[in-house]
Amino acid sequence: MFYVLASCLAVIMFGTSVAVEPSCPVCSKYEYQERLLERVLSNELELRNTLNKITETHAQVEDTLKAMKAESAKINDSMHALDVKRRDIDDEMKSLRKEVQEKKQELTDKVDGLLVTGVRNLTGNVQEMSTIVQSLVTQTSKELDILKGTQFCG
Prior knowledge:
This protein has about 150 residues and is mostly helical.
């Protein structure tokens, strides 16, 4: 505001300093002062108009600045919310990864247990069947020997 008033004063002083006295001797001193006063008044009106325009522009700039600050605050709030959301998602992903890893390990342990049990059962069954087959072979041999012996006897 001070600069505007200083500018106005400088323009008035410049206007009065370049104002030349009339070159024609017919003009009276009164007419000269009247013209000079008209110029000063004209300059003052122009300066007032300029001041009004500057004031309007200043108000518009301040309004725009306030709007920009409000928008900046909204953007900062949105950025903060997104950051919080990202952290929540990261935490959830870590939790899910851990849960999946635990489930995988649990399934691996169950499959390994089933395989061990199955192999043990299979081995036991094979041994039992081997014993039964061996017993059957022995019994069949004995019965065959008995049959051979009865064939020759009769």
